[in-house]
Amino acid sequence: MIDELQMPSNLDKDEVLADSVAQLTAPGACRSACHHISRDQPMPSLDALAEVVELLRAVLFPGFFGPSDVGDRSLPFYVGSALDRVVKLLAEQVNRGYCFVCAKDNRQPCTDCEARSQAVALDFVRRLPHVRELLSSDVQAAFDGDPAAKSPGETIFCYPSIKALTNHRIAHQLHHLGVDIIPRIIGEMAHSDTGIDIHPGAHIGPRFFIDHGTGTVIGETCIIGQNVRLYQGVTLGAKSFPKDDTGSRLVKGLPRHPIVEDDVTIYAGATILGRVTIGQGAVIGGNVWVTGDVAPGARIVQARAAEQFFISGAGI
After folding, report:
1. Does 123 share its domain with 259?
2. In angstroms, rounded to a whole number, what is the distance separating the alpha carbons of residues 209 and 211?
3. Which of 131, 129, 158 is nearest to 143 (CA)?
4. What pLDDT shows up at residue 27?
5. Which segments within the chain are labelled E, that is strand?
6. Strand-strand pairing, 283-284 and 265-266
7. Which residues of the chain have pLDDT under 50?
8. Which of 29, 36, 41, 126 stands the most exposed, by the fewest C-beta atoms within 10 Å?
9. In whole angstroms, what is the distance from residue 86 CA to residue 77 CA?
10. Of 154, 171, 195, which marks where a domain is finished?
11. How many structural domains compose the chain?
12. Residues 231, 98 share a domain
């Protein structure tokens, strides 16, 4: 480790650059930190995926995002042009995602990657009306559930929940179409912007609302019903991470996150861990730690604080 308090006073620029380049590019120096382009296919592009998401946001919420002057007559032309661009960009990025994972896992090269990526992009676009329907229900839930909201449009413009759910519902469709890495990138874009962390694999029903949202975590195998409301800082996480027979690697893909049934409310700071079921209509209070099933309609709250008086430090 370099001691910053003992810097040499006579550093030579060329020598420093040459030495650093040699160390950073030496065989084995990169290990997992470097990505080596293989099969003539570069990594997925963050810029291209950001464009895809913004185009889709404008298609799903026209007038709110994208051109603000889109009217009834021009809307079909705009949506058609935007989706044509989405198919082109998305197919390319899906293909790059396949190659990224194939190279990492030392799989044999595919012979139909481009055709498969194009088919996936078209299948995804075919699902967009369903995505719009779900998001419309989320918008209405946000408006109905927050007395501070003056209109549904305000929640579309301003609420981090709607932004995060837009990314999630896009990523979720791609995840279930078998797309590699791209759904995670799209999900993490929203995580960075909003502080809401939703894994693309999580199943979330209609009319879902996260009030405020910051610090919310929803794990990969969560199943959330309809008309569920969460507040900031809620964690729907895993209780434990089982390892394989060697004890060196985690077992992937096991159901390990909560099932939250319809009409559940979970207040700020609550932590729910493991494959437990929160029954329909239950209410989980703030800062509660839950690791077991909760019956339908139950109310789980913290123990009441006890008020005590101490004189001259006695009892402390």
Report:
1. no
2. 6
3. 158
4. 81
5. 197-198, 203-204, 209-211, 217-218, 223-224, 229-231, 235-237, 259-260, 265-266, 271-273, 277-278, 283-284, 289-290, 299-300
6. parallel
7. 1, 315-316
8. 36
9. 14
10. 195
11. 2
12. no
Name the phi and psi angles at 245, rounded to 5.
-60, -25
Which CATH number characterizes residue 219's domain?
2.160.10.10
Show which of 180, 195, 210 is a domain's final residue. 195
| Among 187, 178, 154, CA closest to 53 | 187
Tell me the residue range of the domain where 291 lies.
202-244+252-303
Same domain assignment for residues 90 and 217: no
CA distance 49 to 54: 9
3-state secondary structure of 313: coil
Q: What is the pLDDT of residue 306?
A: 61
> What confidence score (pLDDT) does residue 285 get?
97
The 8-class DSSP code of residue 225 comes to: -
Specify the pLDDT at position 187.
98
- Tokens at residue 156, please? 């579309």
Contact by Cβ (8 Å): 159, 194: no
- Token digits of residue 279: 């029954």
| Token pair for 165 | 């759910």
Question: Do 170 and 259 share a structural domain?
Answer: no
What's the rounded Cα separation, in Å, for the pair 218 and 190? 13
Q: Are 259 and 278 in contact (CB under 8 A)?
A: yes
| Cβ neighbours for 197, distance < 8 A, ≥ 6 positions apart | 187, 191, 216, 217, 218
Asked if residue 152 and residue 66 are part of one domain, the reply reads: yes
DSSP code for 268:
T
Assigned token pair, 76 = 């079909």
Burial (0-12, 13-18, 19+ Cβ within 10 Å), 252: exposed
